[in-house]
Amino acid sequence: MANLNQYRVSIETLLKQYAELGKSTTGVEAQLIFDRERDHYLLNYVGWQQEQYLCGPALQFDIKEGKVWFQYNATELEVIDELIALGVARQDIIIGFHPPYLRTHSN
Q1: Does residue 51 sit in helix, strand or coil?
Q2: Are strands 93-95 and 67-73 parallel, antiparallel or unpaired?
Q3: How are beta strands 28-35 and 93-95 bridged, if at all?
């Protein structure tokens, strides 16, 4: 259970850092969505950039069966090393957007 709480804090810290980096004066809002009960964590962007409406996820994580599932990355950021530095064990990180046959190579 200690790992689970640490993993929650690590994911939330990482997403908060990226939300701060992505703050914009263009009208696009960084939204942090944390569902600790179901262990879903999302950095979403919504708003107008010039004449175009934007709405969509940037980074998404889940915690399932004690593992951190990196579900989505719409950025060019390499966040795995940052998660590890924040206390998530490398062997507990699953790249969810990789097909199952490649996941054995992701941790």
Answers
A1: coil
A2: parallel
A3: unpaired
The DSSP bridge partners found for residue 43 are: 32, 59
Q: How far, in Å, are 6, 18, 45, 82, 105 from residue 88 at the CA level?
A: 8, 17, 25, 9, 17
Residue-wise pLDDT tens digits, 4-22 = 999 999 999 999 999 988 6
Cβ partners under 8 Å of residue 98, min gap 6: 106
Instruction: Report the candidate in 20, 38, 40 with the shortest Cα–Cα distance to residue 29.
Output: 20
What is the domain partition of the chain in residue ranges? 2-103
2-103 CATH: 3.30.310.110
